[in-house]
Amino acid sequence: MMGTVAALIAPKVRDPLFPFLGLTVATVLLALLLVAALFGALAFIAGATDGVSWLGGNVRAGVLWMIVVGVAGLAGWGYAATVTFGAEFSTSAQITLGYLGGGLPFALVACVLLRPVALNVAAIVMSVVLLGIGFALVDSSGEQQFNALQLYAWYLLSLLGGPNTAVPM
């Protein structure tokens, strides 16, 4: 699903520093529809895997699991997208990575919520390593004057319609 979101967004990018300015209303609506479908799939998974997480095994726990995995997974996916924009990956590379690895942030968050502590630790370590690799990729891209976290904040503000001048320095 997130690969399709990448396929919708990546080709519309006009400027690496303002990736969301080139999106049409139809593109935004399709992306939102895919994200809604993602939360529907997460709700199904939460119901089918009742009781395997630290959150418990009732309906409220399943809803909480869906929200945590969905929101934190989208945040992780957004960071990965920021890295591909900031490191100036080609459109085809962004789409390929979206299809091949778009579910990874969601899987890592889900693993943090599963009961075996060893799995929690492994998912957290992998997340930290991936965050560091993304930070290094953006930092080493040459002409970029912002690090990955600053760019991520800027992209979030841009996506939410905030001022593009509010880049944290």
Automatic annotation (TrEMBL):
It comes from Herbihabitans rhizosphaerae. This is Uncharacterized protein. The keyword Membrane applies. It comes from the Bacteria. Keywords: Membrane, Transmembrane, Transmembrane helix. The lineage of its organism: Bacteria, Bacillati, Actinomycetota, Actinomycetes, Pseudonocardiales. The chain crosses the membrane at residues 20-47, 59-80, 92-114, 121-138, 150-167.
